[in-house]
């Protein structure tokens, strides 16, 4: 039996908003007391976590005075130093306050857009002070319920203006954050702009400095739209743009549930972990998830421990998959043909040779593809009988 005890070397992180979630939902008041961020840092460190991530207002209240802000940050930095915990990623809350009811960067009101940009600048200052290396942008209010209310072309233009400005500020200040854009199809808006990771990857190429802008995909966001999250992460890796990742659990076609990682779709979670481990992803494994509303504070930390334990179990399953002789034999057989003749690229000679090649269509049609057998072997592996 492998050791599934989390350690800082595994780079597991949690948002302050995750373990600090008081259990409020759209239909009910909080079921738990608000947690002091300092207490979250200390408890997560005891569980073996690597660090915590935060929105600006997870740590500093929206209306805090400069003096209050400095005192809060001082106490928080002391907790980080005492525990050795890191803050790898920071972000800005541009969705809770009513001023952002119709968007932040994509609001019709230019003063709201300017205020949102100012808020991010100050939040970047905070993130840099805490040592963050990645800065995430999730546009929770960047969308519409009424398409007549704004042009999507204007919205993209305004989004681009804000991100270009903030990226320039980032570089000018010497913060050198890697900016990571996070996609979501809907909720809390009826439709959110740039709704998938693929949308974000395309948008990034229109920015002034796309080289230091990537993505932060979240498991629940693609899954709630019935998409294959692992495929989207693979596209980000292929583009060299996987700067950060949010892990959780989600039932398809539901509201954004943010369940404990590994609690739903264990096969999907397995292939995600396998992809990250096989490709050598070395960033934080960030859990953007929440304990059940029925949990008390002690159960919240059972939830946190469960996220990390599930990842480590699936990491071990990925190792077993890669060493399983029967599974690997099937994969070898499926891939025995090697590279396609087009892999070396185009030339006139190569094109003429390909056009002249004879193919045994019947043999290719009737080739064996034992995918049922292969999938059952994966199920056996995950269920612990291999």
Any overview of this molecule?
The chain is an alpha/beta fold and 386 residues long. It has 2 domains: 8-323, Divalent-metal-dependent TIM barrel enzymes (TIM Barrel); 325-382, no CATH class. Helix content is 46%, strand content 9%. The chain has helices at residues 16-19, 37-47, 56-59, 66-83, 110-129, 152-172, 197-204, 219-223, 229-238, 266-278, 297-323, 325-334, 348-356, 361-365, 371-382, and strands at 12-15, 51-55, 89-91, 134-138, 143-144, 178-182, 191-192, 213-215, 246-247, 285-287. An 8-stranded parallel β-sheet has the order 8-6-4-3-2-1-10-9. Helix 5 (110-129) packs parallel to helix 6 (152-172), helix 9 (229-238) packs parallel to helix 10 (266-278) and helix 10 crosses helix 11. It is globular and about 75 Å long. The model has no long low-confidence stretch (mean pLDDT 97).
Identify the overall geometry: globular
User: End-to-end span in angstroms?
Assistant: 13 Å
Q: What is the CATH class designation of the largest domain?
A: Alpha Beta
Classify the beta-strand content into a percent band: 5-15%
| Number of separate helices | 15
Mean pLDDT: 97
What number of domains? 2
Report the radius of gyration as a whole number of Å: 23 Å
* Number of DSSP E strands: 10
Described by strand count, sense and barrel closure, the largest sheet is:
8 strands, parallel
Q: Could you estimate the helical fraction of the residues in percent?
A: 40-55%
Provide the low-confidence segments as ranges: none
Give, in spatial order, the strands making up the sheet with the most strands: 8-6-4-3-2-1-10-9
Q: Please identify which CATH superfamily of the largest domain we are dealing with.
A: Divalent-metal-dependent TIM barrel enzymes
Just name the CATH architecture of the largest domain: Alpha-Beta Barrel
